[in-house]
Amino acid sequence: MKRFEYICDACGETQNGAPSFSFRFPPYYFDIPETERAERVRVNDDFCEIDTPEGGTLFWIRVVIEAPIAGATEPFTWGVWVTQSAESFARYRDTFGQNQSADGSFGWLTVDLPCYNRTAAGAVLENLECDVQWGCTGQRPKAYLWESEHPLAVDQRGGISWDRAVEIATVTNAKFDGC
Fold it and tell me: Fewest CB atoms less than 10 Å from the CB: which of 97, 132, 172, 176?
């Protein structure tokens, strides 16, 4: 096992350590017209609530999803958002800042990751069922996808090759305009 390192095609620089990417907002945030976001969206680094036009509210928490990299000491990591029921969201928020490692919840991960989207551009994104294991104080929760044939679920269970990790990191870097 060794530390992951690769030369990024997007920037030409040597990147040290396992790739890690994070999304500032859940994908549905971008469905809200910019002129309505201040009124309908409450979001910070850990929580997101979006009021629907029908009068309901959708809830998300930010979590980590990992896929082991063959031969590397650290996994490929994404900071993503999963839906929560109103009850789970309130329980998570009310105990935030405490040790939550004995608790968890169910969520839906909206797949909007380079190299893992199976839907056409502009189509509704896939949602994958997952269990969320809340973390110790100061740790972000981890999402564990339910067993399925979706490539992300397969990679989380079985790991990814070094070359595939480089490919995903390079494509993701390019999507986000470089390193």
Answer: 97
Strand pairing partners for 130? 107, 145
Residue of 140, 113, 143, 110 lying closest to 46 (CA atoms) = 140
What is the CB neighbour count within 10 angstroms for residue 137? 10
User: What pTM, to 2 d.p., does this model score?
Assistant: 0.89
Mind listing the pLDDT tens digit for each residue in 39-57?
999 999 999 999 999 999 9
Bridge partners of residue 83, in order along the sequence: 60
3-state secondary structure of 41: strand
Note whether 5 and 16 are within 8 A (CB).
yes
Indicate the domain borders of the chain: 20-159
Provide the residue type at 93 as one letter. Answer: R
